[in-house]
Structure formats: structure tokens, C-alpha cells
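Hi Prof. W.,

I finally got the ABC transporter ATP-binding protein prediction working! I wasn't sure whether to trim anything, so I left the full sequence exactly as given:
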Amino acid sequence: MSLSFRGYRLWWKKYPMMLLSSAFCSITTALTPYVAIYLTARIINEIAGERDVATLRLLVWLSLVTTAVLAIVNAGLSKWKTYERKALWYKRDKFYTGKLLSMNFKDVDSAQTNTLRGKIQQSDTWPAWGLGGLLADFDLLVESVLTILGAIVLSCSIFIYKVPESAGKLTVLNNPIFILVLVTAMLAVTFTVPMLINKGNSYWANYSGDITMFEKYRIFMTKSSPERERALDTRIYCQDVMGKKYLDEAMVHGDRATTILRPMRFFHTSSTAVSHVFTLLIYIFVCLKAWGGAYDVGSITQYIGATTALSGGVSGLLRFFGNQQNNAPFLMNVYEFLDIPNEMHLGNKSTGKKKENQYTIEFRNVSFKYPSSDKYALKNLSLKFNIGKRLAVVGQNGSGKTTFIKLFCRLYDPTEGAIYLNGVDIREYDYREYMDLFSVVFQDFNLLSFSLGQNVSAAVDYDAELAEECLVKAGFGERLKSLPNEMETSIYKDFNKSGVDISGGEAQKIAIARALYKDAPFVILDEPTASLDPIAESEIYEKMNDMVGDKTAVFISHRLSSCRFCNDIVVFNEGRIIQHGGHEKLILDKEGKYFQLWNAQAQYYTT
Ligand SMILES: Nc1ncnc2c1ncn2[C@@H]1O[C@H](COP(=O)(O)OP(=O)(O)OP(=O)(O)O)[C@@H](O)[C@H]1O
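And this is what came out:
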């Protein structure tokens, strides 16, 4: 229950109107039948008794008007509830996306977080457990409690009114044993049905920790296959066959579920039969008491209606508690995810000097292991450089170049050692402000299916002149002129028929323009020209000084020729810096890694 309360508090904090509208709607849904039951009983009593026309007319009008008003109010409230619950999946996902965006990058990147997200997604999309499941249960709770209260008010007098002595043998109905039998029968029926339903549902709860069955199917069939960039791979390598394998696996689980639930269904059906027998007993008891003269004939409707509703209400309440029990493992997954700490956001110092552009960066004995790995990706790294420099980072695959950038941008914190900005450990700076110092083009950058201008500025409203200037600098000027709506042209066609498809190299130029538009003091380009043709590449490098201006630029590149314009080159090998200096100096060391890398490329260009 405490897990559920926490979930309700989350919903309440973010969407209070959603719970309020649900509560009001459930109140009218639960109480409306009782108004009809009560007034119908009064009308029948009047017909069977005094038959006063004025009273009858009043009762009939009252019945019609209250029923109509309640129906209209209920319709209005349920419309409100529907409105508040619109795009529910999106509202629910905001709990997760909000957390993901504020989380330390290392946790976003970790396998454990990914597994948790998979589990949450599976429970959310399929049997509607987790946070989403709480909402349906909320309706059940309010309706059940009110149904029980209403039923108690309308039915308690059934045992109070006694059959008069004049009724002869029927006075036996006054014996408390009848009360006992009826209450026992009612409790038996009331408990059996929800118990069986909960038992059936608990089958699914066993799978709260298992993401493998539907999740794999989902990844292949629903997540990957609609993505355009994967469509080619899917076709050429027939990846849908792999997806089908997991679908079949999921179906086997589905069949198992059906088999296991079969006996449950038998019990469900049996319990329905039992509950009908119980209703029959109530009918006999209530009618006989009325026949004996304990109350008027109209009260039969009232008692029967109320006791049947009471049973339904108690059963609903028990189902609610059972659901909370079954939902607990799913909610635990959700909270484990939401409770991942954000310790990267603890610093509060201002980076301050952005306008003055005065920065010195120093890596002091930095070592780093990825959380999921025992191996050092970087080992005892020391490096110092000032603003305005051009630093090239080279090395073989897996030597730690990208990791170095990730630490520099504080996507990860060092395992040992520290990084200093102007002599202050970067962990002491306000995280957001520190991030503002960087423009990065990663190898796996992403563009969005929005307008070109919005992509360059990463904003809805943008400075078109500046965006154009950056695109021209990044070598996209000619292509820009050929676009139907220039800066307003949509990239890709997802949202716009007149959108344009762009090549990998063009996308890379837009990504470089985006980095320039941000106007951050550090520009970091990880393989910035990997997709560019040789002419575009050489143009970019020729213009590099002009493009970067007085900013600090860090380039990671496997094309060693591109490093020549950098004042500083560091050579990485197995997580360490093994050489450091200018091109002219490094190339002289014939035994060095730099010479080896340079020659490996240069040999094919020389005769
Ligand atoms: N998220 C991660 N989790 C665990 N290990 C990782 C992760 N990312 C990289 N590594 C490991 O860290 C080491 C350095 O990787 P890194 O990506 O920094 O190399 P790189 O020099 O940029 O390589 P490339 O030239 O191929 O881009 C490699 O051994 C790699 O397997």
C-alpha cells in the first residue's frame, strides 16, 4: 500500500485534476443507482399502500428529475475525466523522460538503467501495471468504498424490522441465525471472486522482473523496424526473422498464461454461480419477511438492490487491495529507476568568465573505468591546454579518445584524479553552466525531422542570419540555396511532405553548423569529416581557423593529414597519452606511434 500511495502522490503532484475528475466521476457513478433504488421503493410502497395521487406524482417527478440530473452530471464528469486522461501514455512517460533528462549521463548509459527501463516499458505497454495501473485502481477504490457506504445505509434496516407475531410461523425469520447465515454466505461470495481474480493476476506479477519475452519482440518489431535508418539492415540481413523468433517466444508465454489461467476461469465461473445462489437466498429471505409484514413490499426492491450492490462493492475493494499487492513488484521497478541519484548536479560554482573567454583546462592524473567494466579506458592521463588552442587527438580504435571527450564534457566523472577548469575541480561547477561551455559533434550525432533552422539552432525560434552564416561556414551554403524553403525546409519527410532527404555528409555539415551556432568556448569534433568527400573535407580544414576563431577546438580524427593545422597533437594508446607535441616534432620520431599511424595512411598516396 505504501508503494501505491507513493504512486498516487506522484500523480497528484503532477496531474491533480486527473485524480480529482476521476474521484468526482466515481462518486456519481457509485451513488446514482441508489437514488433510483430508494425512490422506486417509495413509489411501490405508495402504490401498494395509501395510493395518494399527489404523493405519487411528487415521487415520480422526483425520481425522473433526480435520475436525469444525475445522468447529466455523470456525463459531464466523465467527459472531464476523459479530457484529463487524454494522452495518458504521454503523461505517464513524462515521469520517465523527465528523470532520464535530469539523470547523470553515466546512468543513462548504463546497462542496469536500460534493463530497468525495459522492465517498466514492458509492464506499462502490456498488462497496464506500474504507474498507469494505479489510475484504473483509483476508480475502483472510490467506487467500491462509496458503493459499500450507500449499500449499508439502504440495507441495514433489513435486520432491524421484525416480522410481527401475527405472521405465525414466519416469525422464525426473526431468529439471528438467519442473519448469520446470510452474512456468512455474502462474505463467502464476496471473498471468493476477488481472491480468484487476484490469483489469476498474480501470474503476471511473476514476470515483473523479466524483460526478455515481450521486450525483445518489441525492440525488433515495434522499435527498430519502423526506423528508416534501420530499414536497410532489416531487409538485407532479414532481421525480421530474428524478431519473429522472439514473437514466437512471446506467444509461448501467452499460451502458458492461457493454460495456467484456465482453472482460474473455472473457479471464476463457479463463483459467479455461487453468487447467483446467494442472490436467490436474499430474494427468498427479503420476500418472506415482507410477506410476514416486517416491511412494505416496495422495500423488497431496495433491500435486494442494496445487498447485491454491497457484495459488488466489497468485492471491488478486495480486488483493489489484491491489485496493489500484484502491482508492488512493478512499482518497485519504477521507483528503483526514479530513485537513481543525480550526484552530478551537486556543484554550484559559476563558470563565470564566458564573456572574457579565459579558460585553462587541466587533466591531472585522470584514470577512468566505465561502470560496467573492470578495465581502465583511460589511465593516469595528464594534460593542460589554454583557450584558443587547436588540439588533435589521434590513436587506434578503442584507445580512449571518445572517453577522453566524455570526461572533458563531464558526461562521466573520473574514477581517479580530477579535471580542473581555471584551477577549480569541474565537479564544483554548476552542471548546466559547465555544459554550456561545450559544442560537441559526436560520431553518432542526431538531427531531428524539423526545419533546417531549428536543427542548427536547436530551438523553435532562431536567428536565421546566424544559422545561415554557420551553415555556410560548415560548407552547406550551396545546398542551402537549392532547398525549396531554404532555412525553413524540413529535414526528412516524417512531418512534412516537402521535406528533403539529406546525405550522411550533408547531415555532418549541419551538425557542425549546429556546434558553431551554439557559440560555446570549446568546440569538440569527434571524427567531424568522416562522412565528407575529400573536397568538402579539405574545405572544412582550410576554413577551420576561420570557423573556430578564438575558441578552443579539439578534434578527434583518424585522418592524420587533418591534424597538421593543430598546434598540439596528443596520441592515445590503450588509454594513455604516449606522445604529445606538434606534427613536425612527432613525425621525426620514427619509432613513435604517430609516425606509424601517419605512414600507414600516407603510403598509399606516395609513389
Ligand atoms: N559505454 C561503455 N561502457 C563500457 N566500455 C566502454 C564504453 N564505451 C567505450 N568503452 C570501452 O572503452 C575503451 C575506449 O573506448 P573509446 O570509445 O574511448 O575509444 P576510441 O579511441 O574513441 O575508439 P574509436 O576510434 O573506435 O572511436 C574501449 O575499450 C571501449 O570498448
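The longest strand covers residues 376-386. Does that look reasonable to you?

Thanks,
D.
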